Amino acid sequence: MTPEQIERHVDAAAAAAALGLPLSPAHREGVLRYFALAAGFAATVEAVPLSVHDEAAVQFVPVAPASPSEAGR
């Protein structure tokens, strides 16, 4: 998304009465930065090519990162 698209989306979402989440002008810049970051993550995920043979995982099991002592091995 372009910065202009992000601004329009955030402003439209903040104006939606159904959300009930007023966006303070003091918070707007941070919300825009975070939304741009999230849009970048989404673009990275969407860039991964998938074929008809790719399947979603049955269950996601997170793995803890290696401790600094294990990482050096």
What does this structure look like?
With 73 residues, the chain is mostly helical. Helices cover 53% and strands 0% of the residues. The chain is built from three helices and no strands. Helix 1 (3-15) packs across helix 2 (25-46). It is extended and about 50 Å long.
In short:
With 73 residues, the chain is mostly helical.
The string of secondary-structure elements, in order, is HHH
Helix segment tally: 3
End-to-end Cα distance, whole Å, is 41 Å
Quick one: overall form? Answer: extended
Cα-based radius of gyration, to the nearest Å: 19 Å
| Global structural class | mainly alpha
Topology, pairings included?
Elements: H1 3-15, H2 25-46, H3 68-71
Helix pairs in contact: 1-2
Features:
73 residues, extended, mainly alpha, 3 helices
